[in-house]
Amino acid sequence: MPTLQNDLFLRACRRQHVERTPVWMMRQAGRYLPEYRAVRAKSDFLTMVRTPELAAEVTIQPVDLIGVDAAILFSDILVIPEAMGMHLVMEEARGPRFPMPVRSAEQVDALPVVDPDRDLRYVMDAASLVKRHLQGRVPLIGFSGAPWTLAAYMVEGGGTKNFSAIKEMMLDEPATLMALLEKLAVSVRHYLEAQIAAGVDAVQIFDTWGGILAPDHFRKFSLDWIADIVGRMNRGGVPVIVFSKGIHGTLKELSTIGADVVGVDWTVDLAEARELVGDRVALQGNLDPAYLYASPERIRQEVGAVLKKYGDGPGHIFNLGHGILPDVPPDHARAMVRAVGELSPAYHRRG
Amino acid sequence: MPTLQNDLFLRACRRQHVERTPVWMMRQAGRYLPEYRAVRAKSDFLTMVRTPELAAEVTIQPVDLIGVDAAILFSDILVIPEAMGMHLVMEEARGPRFPMPVRSAEQVDALPVVDPDRDLRYVMDAASLVKRHLQGRVPLIGFSGAPWTLAAYMVEGGGTKNFSAIKEMMLDEPATLMALLEKLAVSVRHYLEAQIAAGVDAVQIFDTWGGILAPDHFRKFSLDWIADIVGRMNRGGVPVIVFSKGIHGTLKELSTIGADVVGVDWTVDLAEARELVGDRVALQGNLDPAYLYASPERIRQEVGAVLKKYGDGPGHIFNLGHGILPDVPPDHARAMVRAVGELSPAYHRRG
Description:
2 copies of one chain form a homodimer.
Chain A: H1 8-13, H2 34-42, H3 45-50, H4 52-65, E1 71-72, H5 79-83, E2 89-91, E3 95-97, H6 105-110, H7 116-119, H8 121-134, E4 140-145, H9 147-156, H10 164-172, H11 174-197, E5 202-207, H12 215-232, E6 240-244, H13 251-254, E7 261-263, H14 270-277, E8 282-287, H15 296-310, E9 316-320, H16 330-343
Parallel strand pairs in A: 1-4, 4-5, 5-6, 6-7, 7-8, 8-9
Antiparallel strand pairs in A: 2-3
């Protein structure tokens, strides 16, 4: 593999000096880009995920089109439950669905642990292909859903407002839920290790639904399993990013489990977050994704506000506080990236 | 008016000694009750809201059927925008909608400030009727939406995941949004004052959507306006409860604006919240509403956990961390109320 030409992202993950703050966007390979929609028009979402050439193509699009400092592999967190044998249906209007959700101890027992090299080979192939195409221009990030978030989808079976099924399981059948989370934790760990072996330069664990839990239950049913993965994982020296959305009260604890970077959503004050985590981890975030609906001038102002909140010195990776929204004008994403490039060097002058 | 026979709720609001922790539930006059659904089967939601006899009937149902320590007036936060002349459509499946949302400075200019005694007389009539029917059994709580939350509905026009329209207005047309918020703040204040004049024993300001904002914007566009209302309101000695959902980082500030009680959602650790607010306010909350899906035995355990988090002494009003969900079995709500009654006296022994 060629040496990285732009390693700002990796240096920031390691809290090393950078000349400017690196920037990428969660869900940057996505529907807001007309070039993505052109690929999507010719094949459905899951075909794109499973076809390394297509996945690689859309993975690289935002590097070319938006100018981000890292690529993130185009895929979906639900490939793991699917690899466990669950039938996954993707409908744009209704979101992803598992028509046969997991609800009983017997169903959990019957689920296999994922062997990523056998069951998710297409992901590793896509990662290798992206690395080859990128030729070291920027690093590639691999990812997985966190066990709790994956379990929520598997037990609920689809979109939900109240998470009634998984919360009922959590309270009335905690051993069943724990057995499911353990299988997921082993699967996620092996999956991330396989991605690292395939050449990704960093990995992120997404816990989209961590924030629906009361803090004590978040610790037990989500955080502890993320910590288990991070603690046991053979990382081969690549940085690990953890992102639980909506968990203000447990952010500090998330910074103590051995990850290199903690993602922060936009409802957290980044200055407070930095104070909470000290020098244990770098922070990634946290512009409100909806701000990309505003004018480029206002976006620039809000980028400035986020950079100022983090303040001087290393350890900040600029990102949105959650995924980029599908109807944002690409020019607005470019305005954000440009503003980070222009406004951030002031925070990285040495001495 | 007869003297209150059960004033536990009011004493807890004032942080006075109680023999046990009082309990009520947000949205307790609602669809989970078959007796409510029987009334609803005969008239649509808005007719129920506008007919004092029907509103009074369902307001009192949970006092009789569940045994809560306070009644809350059956109504809807959207009566204010409706009284400003916005056409409101209520569809069970899609939720409330304003087919003609407010998007421009001209539209905001054209909106009148609400005169509650003229425009919302039916609410005050319902409040008086409830007071008469209750005969002092328990206190009656009046309420309003917070300006930010009302503005979000008025600008978005209905259910939304991303709040793109109001956030765009907030960034690109802040003066327009501020003009709207000011009209709403005056309307809400007069509305709450009219409810107090009609006899309610406490009022609550609901800020359902406060938590979608970054902290600095929450302060400016939501908190400051709630503070304005609480600061100027002629309360006639009745306690004021403020509840912003999902605002962990600004909970402490919410406790400093002169309200008597701060509501806390279930994602906040109640022990931490108590430490944050000190002896400035009482706290109301915070069982995860989804826990009422679990078995009565588990509900009892979780009630015990919430009571223990708050700990000894006065100033706790037991509630859910958000509204009761429409498909919860009434027996589970009763199990919660019973558990509070049985487990809480241990936390109120004097000396």
